[in-house]
């Protein structure tokens, strides 16, 4: 079976964390938000003239106000959101026994809270516009089993992403919304 991306042509997609790696690869034909605007501008320049259009939107996903402003900009300038790809994430290794609270907050703020805020706002917009949308969480094997005890808090954040995706699936089904949730392991 060959899956076609044609159903998404002309639709609005948001990719978080798109200035490098997996996010940059995804962003080649999708809308992106990222805190590192210079890198996104370079990517937009590289992709000019190709199918699709890239709109770099500087967004700090650890700040709710930035996320809300980015959603507002997207809706006002591009229209309803059809796809959200939660790709942004932060990883740092360290032991719980001598861990750094500030670092733990940063990991959870980006990997869990920022993802949750973006998901909430995307679903609200999809619901308001009767969009059969798609939410995709880029996760990690570390969100399904402990693979390295030194990555303790990072792994806990990724386990949270797994639980959030399953909770969202159940919620969307109970509300009878035609919005899909997918988790992809990187």
Automatic annotation (TrEMBL):
GO molecular function, one term: oxidoreductase activity
Pfam family membership, one: adh_short
Alphabetized UniProt keyword annotations: Oxidoreductase
InterPro entries: NAD(P)-bd_dom_sf, SDR_fam
Listed transmembrane segments: none
Family assignment from sequence similarity: Belongs to the short-chain dehydrogenases/reductases (SDR) family.
Protein's name in the database: Farnesol dehydrogenase-like
């Amino acid at each position: 079976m060959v899956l076609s991306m044609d159903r998404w042509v002309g639709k609005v997609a948001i990719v978080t964390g798109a200035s490098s790696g997996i996010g940059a690869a995804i962003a080649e034909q999708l809308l992106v938000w990222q805190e590192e605007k210079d890198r996104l501008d370079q990517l937009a320049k590289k992709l000019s003239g190709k199918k699709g259009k890239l709109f770099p939107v500087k967004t700090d996903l650890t700040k709710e106000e930035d996320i809300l402003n980015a959603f507002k900009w997207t809706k006002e300038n591009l229209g309803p959101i059809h796809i959200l790809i939660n790709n942004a994430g932060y990883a740092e290794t360290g032991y719980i026994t001598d861990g750094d609270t500030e670092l733990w907050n940063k990991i959870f703020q980006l990997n869990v809270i920022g993802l949750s805020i973006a998901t909430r706002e995307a679903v609200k917009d999809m619901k308001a516009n009767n969009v059969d949308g798609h939410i995709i969480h880029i996760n990690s094997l570390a969100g399904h089993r402990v693979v390295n005890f030194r990555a303790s808090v990072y792994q806990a954040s990724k386990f949270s992403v797994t639980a959030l995706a399953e909770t969202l699936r159940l919620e969307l089904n109970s509300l009878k919304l035609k919005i899909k949730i997918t988790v992809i392991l990187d």
